[in-house]
User: Fold this.
Amino acid sequence: MKVYKLEVMVIDHDEMGVVDIINTLENTRYPNWCMSPRVQKYESADIGEWRDDHPLNFKDTRDAAYDRLFPVEKKE
Assistant:
């Protein structure tokens, strides 16, 4: 199974602001035409076979698992 990291461009037609846009995306409740999300870039990582105890499945381990899968290069 794969997991994907997406970079998304959102046109904020209704001037919702970043916090409300994030909440709308995460809750997948898209009001009619309030924004137009488009995937600009993506990365993928293989996570093997999914299981219920996978670290991505829990709030307390999700961020660390994500960081291991998609490390950010530090620029000097």
